[in-house]
Structures are given as structure tokens and as C-alpha cells.
Known about the structure:
Blueprint: H1 2-48, E1 69-70, E2 74-75, E3 79-81, H2 84-87, E4 101-104, E5 130-133, E6 148-152, E7 182-183, E8 186-187, E9 198-201, E10 212-216, H3 218-234, H4 242-247, E11 275-276, H5 293-298, E12 305-311, E13 314-321, E14 324-331, E15 334-338
Parallel strand pairs: 5-9
Antiparallel strand pairs: 1-2, 3-4, 4-6, 6-10, 7-8, 11-12, 12-13, 13-14, 14-15
Helix pairs in contact: 1-3
Amino acid sequence: MLILVLLLIATAALFSGLNGNTVKIERDNTTASTLAEAKAALIGYTLTSDTKPGTLPCADSDNDGSGNTSGSNNCKAFIGRLPSKQLGAPMLKDSYGECLWYALSPAFRNQMTVTSRKLNPINSNTPGTITLVNDNDAALGNVNPVIAVIIAPNSPVNGQSRSGEAGGYCPGDSSAGHYLDTRGAVNNATGNVAGDHYTFKLGKAGNDFNDQLVYITAKEFYTPLKKRIVREIVGNVDVPGGLFRYYHPPTGTPPNQYPCPAKTVDGNADCTLETGFVPYNDAVADLAYPTLGTWLANNGWFAMTTYQYITATHIKVTLADAFGSYSCDANANVVTCSAP
Length: 340
């Protein structure tokens, strides 16, 4: 009888452990799905911005669902809650019901005037300023530096107190230290900030640390953004603009030809050239980028673009960087784009 009792106790303990592990796996999977949704929302935000593609919202520092700015050129904070409302996303929570947190590399903030971008450009030569480290505080060299991180705080550890605030967008308060963890030399609540540089830990979960983190690498950020930029420069049949607008303007008699390349990035069209720059600054060509022209120029995108004048009715625009290249080919009024 004693043996039977001991066997039943051992069996119950085994199943209890298995159930606990199953619950943890399910929680981790739920949180991972939410983090992936948040990452997609941030990338979608930067790709679809009408006036500042390539920028990210400021962090939410007052728990109202939107990023908090400081004047016309800065954020109030670069670590805060994810501004889900501003992203057009639902309130994104981890499996413990906690809203997600977020940090961005300061250069990528959307709170900067277009004029200021001339000295602070965002293009695919612009690196992030966030470093990720492992539990040994060693940098993860295959991903660093990253542009942004999203953190799920999960359940409290080390006596963290999370008091609620009436009327807040998310449950709880706005103190990062009540949610984000410290292990070794790295404090995820402060990002070990040094100037514009931040460090976050991607560690193994334990009793002292359970932050669950995803990040946006430069490749993940710039590969789709590059496509948006090239398409804006070329234009297309549905939304005439850029080079296509020159070929077939919405009003008047169309010239049915494309402008010649420019010898310098801000120069005039020169028909002795077969390859050069897009002549965006040529008053005669008047490519008219009413919304994004200054943005593209000040951020250095035109300088990174090669313009091939194949014939008067056939051109190709290519943007190449460390992550590959992307081209749009306009043959008469047919525009096709691809990554060669």
C-alpha cells in the first residue's frame, strides 16, 4: 500500500510539472505572436507614412496609446510603451495581460522636421544605435546594431510593483522599472543609455528575468522601405508622379518620353549621358514630387539611386545598398519592379 501511495504521489508530481511546462510554452507562444504583430505594425507604419517614410513613432511615455513628442524635433522618451493606438493596432498585450514596451534608435524618430533631415538623414546607410547582448553581456554580432526593440514584460520579478492608474490606455503605470528587468550589467528599463546608444538584454527566462524581446534589424527595415522609395521616384500608371508624371502628366499634352539623366545628384538633365542621377532638381524637367521631393533629397535617397536612360521611352531606376538592390523599369507606360 505504501508503495502504491508513493507511486501516486510521484505520478501527480510528474503531471503537475508537465502541466506547468505546457502552460509556460503556451504563454510564450501567445506572447511571441503578439510581439510579431507589433513588429509588423511598426514596419507597416514606416512604409506607409505619407510624408516621412523611414521614421518610427516616439515611445508612449504617458500611457495614452500614442508617442510623446518634445518640440518639433524630439521625443520625450525613447523607451516607453508601444504606441499601439498611433500605429492603428489594437491594444497589444503579452500572455500576462501586460501591454508591450518599445525602444527606438533616436535618429529614426518621426518627430524631426524635413529640413533637419539634411544633417540627420535616414537612408539605408544609416545604422540603428541599439545593441543586443546575451546573458554573458556579449553583443549579438549577427544582428547588431538594430533599429528598434519591442519587449513583453510578462509577470513581475524581483519584487516589481505594478500599480494601476485610472484612465490610462494600458493597465498599470508608466514606470519602466516596474515592468522591464535587470540582469548582470544591463537594465532593460533604461537601456543603459549612453548618448544615442542603448543596450538591451535578450536573456534566458528565469526567476530574476523574464523579458521577452523582438527586434527590427536594418535588413528587415530597409529591404521593404527601399521598394517604397524606388516606386515613389518612378511613379506608376495608377498614381502619376515622378518620372512617370513627366512621361504622361495628368493634364496637357504628354511628351511621351522620359527626361535625360543628371550628371550630379542635384544637377540638370544632360542628354549626353546614358546613366546618371534622377534629375529631380531640374526646373525644366519639373518632376514635381509635391509631397516627398524634399524628403527624398534631404535624406540622401536620390544620391543612392542610379538612373539609366535606355531610350527616350525606356528608363530604369535602381537603388542598391548593403542589403541588395531594387529596380523599377519603365518602358513607355508599363512599369515593372523587381529585386535583381
